[in-house]
Amino acid sequence: EPIPTTSPSPPDPTAATIKQTERPHPLTPLVRGWLILVAIAIGWGREIVTGGGENQFEAGGLTWFLPIVAIVVLLAAIAGFITWYFTRFVIDDEELRIESGAIFKKSTKIPFERLQSVDIIQPLVARIFGLAELRLDAGNSSTKLRYLSRGKASRLRDYLLTRAHGQQASIRDLDQQAAASIFTDLGVTDQPLVKVSPQRLIVSFLLSSEWLIPTIITIIIVVTTAAFGVVPLALGGLIPLLIGMVSLIWRRVIGMFNFTLAESPRGLRITRGLTNLTSQSVPINRIQGVKVSQPLLWRLLGWYRMDVDILGYAQGDGENNESNASSVLLPVATLDEVELAIGRVLPGFNPDAIELHPSPKRARRVRWFDFWTLRYGWDDRTLITEHGWFTHVRDIVPHAKTQSVRIEQGPLQRLLRLANVGVHTPRGPVNAVAHQLDEQTARELALSQLDRARAARASERQRRVVAQVRTDDHQG
Questions:
Q1: What's the DSSP call for residue 22?
Q2: Which of 116, 126, 343, 463 is the most exposed place for a label (fewest CB within 10 A)?
Q3: Alpha carbons 254 and 202: distance in angstroms, whole number
Q4: How far apart are CA 215 and CA 163, in angstroms?
Q5: Cβ distance 428 to 288 under 8 Å?
Q6: Can you tell me whether residue 455 is helix, strand or coil?
Q7: Which residues pair with 398 in a beta bridge?
Q8: Contact, 291 vs 307, CB < 8 A?
Q9: How far is CA 302 from the centre of its chain?
């Protein structure tokens, strides 16, 4: 009697495939550990400066300090190795997933369509070893992948931005992609729009009130205390002031050095930095407003600064040191360069075609110092407000980006029948306020702006639906 045989069952197509994960670059613990050494050196140096250096190097003074430093560095190296060893990631045609944690496991899976920006950050030590950090912004959350080789980080950035824009692509196609520039991180498809020369950047910094005011205060303090022979007594106030000035130089000059605004296939790309190189991708649809400012001394040279509100960034001064993200679109630029950048951010926008209305003459009783600069206007796409004499500011907000409208009226304004109208956008450098309007005009402006915002959002939704239908028809 024949023995019945059983044929092997076919594989279950729904069974999950175990994917091969990757670790960050093996030099990651070394790069991250170096930051601990820098922090110790800065803390020790500050203690020497503020506490008096004569007692820091007494006999036997280092016998307790160096072993403590060695232990801290050793512990940091062990922690860095454990973090690196238990960090794995998968980036392929199907998913983006990052796993971390030795004791408490954490797995972060980000859908491609939720990615809003992908930036590359290269601290000095990472640049020396040819490494880079990949920063993934997905709305309210930010994920960092430290560190990858510079070429790999650049290719993954371009792939993720392609998928974030809804385009199909294979990660294998990126193996043949030319590497980005080692100095600017611009690829062959990136078209530079504006390059800020070091000379212009330094001169504009020296002529800015941010630098001039603390410099003048420092000189006054030094001269006054030297005249009375009490300079040591002023060190408690001078040292924090000098530290702030050095920090300002680091952010405004070294951090913005070799600033380049370029146009990429996925939006705008900003690269900047002398020691730390930051490459920031700015999708056009995330820009919520534009601010163009001109300090008093810059007017002699015809220079401007341009900032933007970017959805997801929550800093008021245009910078965020923790994330290395920036809302500065141009740190210093000519009028032609500003118009070129605005043409990319707001295609077809023409500020000269918008009629600007002044505030009533009685506003001079409240704003006697700059009442002649208070103006506002709008067209079918945007609202513009202007103010400021010492630093003239123009805020531009597309109607579709308006979140809410506010009317403010203080006690003195009630007596003069004046009011302010503020147009809210996500928190950032843009603060569009029509100052000192006639109270009846203010109500009309606020109500009509809500109507314009509602109509603009409806029109934008309709355009997206039409574009999606055309895309589906083309793919079909």
A1: B
A2: 463
A3: 10
A4: 48
A5: yes
A6: helix
A7: 382
A8: yes
A9: 25
> In this structure, what token pair is assigned to residue 392?
């003239």
**Any idea what DSSP says for residue 106?**
E
CA atoms of 222 and 235, how far apart (whole Å): 9
Give the count of beta carbons closer than 10 Å to the beta carbon of residue 153. 27
Q: Judge whether residue 151 has pLDDT over 50.
A: yes
* Alpha-carbon gap, residue 135 to 142, rounded angstroms: 7
Q: pLDDT tens, 331-365? A: 999 999 999 999 999 998 888 899 999 999 999 99
CB atoms within 10 A of CB 265: 14
Report helix, strand or coil for 292. Answer: strand
Structure tokens at 212: 């001039």
pLDDT over threshold 80, residue 34:
no
Distance CA 82, CA 75 (A): 11
Q: Indicate the DSSP class of residue 170.
A: -
Query: What residue type is assigned to position 27 of the chain?
Result: L
The model's pTM: 0.85
Strand partners, 432: 423
169 with 159: CB under 8 angstroms? yes
Alpha helices in 165-282 (DSSP H): 198-206, 209-228, 235-249
Amino acid letter for position 374:
L
Return the residue matching tokens 């070129």.
340
Q: Chain-wide mean pLDDT for the chain?
A: 86
- What is the SS3 assignment for 376? strand
Q: Which helix or strand (DSSP H or E) is residue 144 part of?
A: strand 141-149
- Helix and strand numbers, DSSP H then E, in the chain: 10, 22
The pLDDT tens digits of the residues spanning 69-105 come to: 778 778 888 888 999 999 999 998 888 999 998 888 8
